[in-house]
């Protein structure tokens, strides 16, 4: 199975119900070939990474083609890519998405180590968090990107 979806609510991002004074509701696309990494990211970000940000839907992908198909369909406010995924790493995939998708949603990449920040810059990522994943860093990065996100 290449992808799966987890919904937290029935409200769509960008809808009139999500435009009120409540938290910014976002839909997240998460890519990693490792289910343990995907579970770790979801647990680190949580449902409310910040007071003003609520994740209403997670869509998980285990392959690069599934990521491309999901983004082509639209509706994602934020993308999280695992730089250590194989055979297609999240860093190369991020650069491809940023170069090929008009108004690509903000992208958070997960790198193998803190010293890989230069690779994240090359990939055109909007934010980077290194492994091992620190839940506070993940939540802060997700919230920061979600605040500036627009529904694709």
Brief summary:
The chain is of the alpha/beta class and 152 residues long. It is 34% helix and 24% strand.
Note down, in words, how this protein is organized.
With 152 residues, the chain is of the alpha/beta class. The chain has a single domain (3-7, 23-147), classed as Rossmann fold. Helices cover 34% and strands 24% of the residues. It has helices at 35-45, 64-73, 90-100, 117-122, 135-147, and strands at 3-7, 24-31, 53-61, 78-82, 107-111, 127-130. Strands 1-3-2-4-5-6 form a 6-stranded mixed β-sheet, with helices on both faces. Strand 5 (107-111), helix 4 (117-122) and strand 6 form a beta-alpha-beta unit. Helix 1 crosses helix 5 (135-147). The longest helix has 13 residues, at 135-147. The radius of gyration is 14 Å and the shape is globular. The two termini are 24 Å apart.
């Amino acid at each position: 199975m290449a992808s799966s979806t987890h919904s937290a609510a029935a409200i769509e991002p960008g809808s009139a119900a999500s435009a009120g004074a409540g938290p910014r509701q976002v839909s997240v696309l998460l890519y990693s070939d490792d289910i343990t990494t995907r579970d770790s990211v979801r647990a680190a970000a949580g449902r409310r990474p910040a007071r003003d940000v609520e994740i209403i839907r997670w869509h998980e992908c285990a392959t690069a083609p599934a990521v491309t198909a999901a983004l082509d369909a639209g509706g994602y406010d934020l993308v999280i890519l695992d730089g250590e995924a194989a055979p297609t790493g999240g860093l190369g995939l991020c650069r491809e998405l940023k170069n090929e998708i008009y108004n690509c949603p903000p992208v958070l990449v997960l790198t193998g180590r803190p010293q890989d920040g230069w690779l994240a810059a090359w990939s055109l990522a909007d934010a980077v968090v290194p492994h091992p994943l620190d839940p506070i860093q993940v939540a802060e990065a997700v919230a920061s990107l979600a605040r500036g996100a627009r529904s694709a």
